[in-house]
Amino acid sequence: MSFNKLKLIDPVLRAIEERGYKEATYIQKKAIPFILERKNLLGIAKKGTGKTAAYSIPIVQLIHRIDKNNTEKPVIRALVVTSKDELSLQAGKTFSDYSKHTIVKHAVITNPDDKDQLDLLNGGVNVLIGTSKNISTIFKKEPKFLAEVKMLVLDEFDETVKKEGAENVKELLGSIPSGIVTICFAGEETDEVKGLLEGRMDKAEKFVVKGKPKKNKKKGEPSSDKSKKTGDKNQKPKKKKKKKGGGRKSTEMSDKLKSKFMWPLEK
Questions:
Q1: How many structural domains comprise the chain?
Q2: Mean pLDDT throughout 205-224?
Q3: How much is the pTM?
Q4: Nearest residue to 134 (alpha-carbon basis) of 148, 145, 126, 123
Q5: CB-CB neighbours of 75 under 10 Å
Q6: Please, are residues 81 and 160 in contact by the beta-carbon 8 Å criterion?
Q7: Residue 232 lies in a domain
Q8: What is the domain-level CATH number for residue 174?
Q9: Angstrom distance (rounded) from CA 25 to CA 72
Q10: In a domain, 188, yes or no
């Protein structure tokens, strides 16, 4: 599926185009629409399926649309909890790539005692990224940073539980309101994962990515559509449509839609 069909705004689409990507992976085309509608989401997927972009793209869009006219210092709207520092840095790079044409700012915390990293938070960011241990330390020192969080991402959550222990992860989750949007990606849905998510994933959309990871198709690459390889009898040849002039259709949020997506901006 083309990214142009996922109701993404021009600044985000431009960033995707600059990365050279043309089509979304399976996990991206499944997750992005649900996250844009601010639904709880549980995705069971292995590494390399494109899940970091699957949550960073819609989060960047939501924050940009809602906060772009806010003249006050940015506050943390989204919290991304990872299993290790390397994944935190990878997520930070992904947010940098897709937010470059938006107002969205992020910070990666790999050392909660580092003054420079804390200065980033005090300067104001929209997205905080770090391991469960590092983020717990930040919130114990500065609980104010938790006040405006509206979305929680648990990336490689099963690995986080294995590495840091269920009790430590439970302590962090206990400090984060359960009513906010929660997006969880895990390689497998273990009993510990289910237990920790209980009460937080009400009415969550769930999907499972099976098989080998499939990378984003870049411009100029031949199609690798699975239905063509397997000879799906129901697959109908697509008709070529002529491109119309006038450029890409605007996807700016109407007042009616804005009332559905908007979270209160406390003054």
A1: 1
A2: 65
A3: 0.79
A4: 145
A5: 18
A6: yes
A7: no
A8: 3.40.50.300
A9: 36
A10: yes
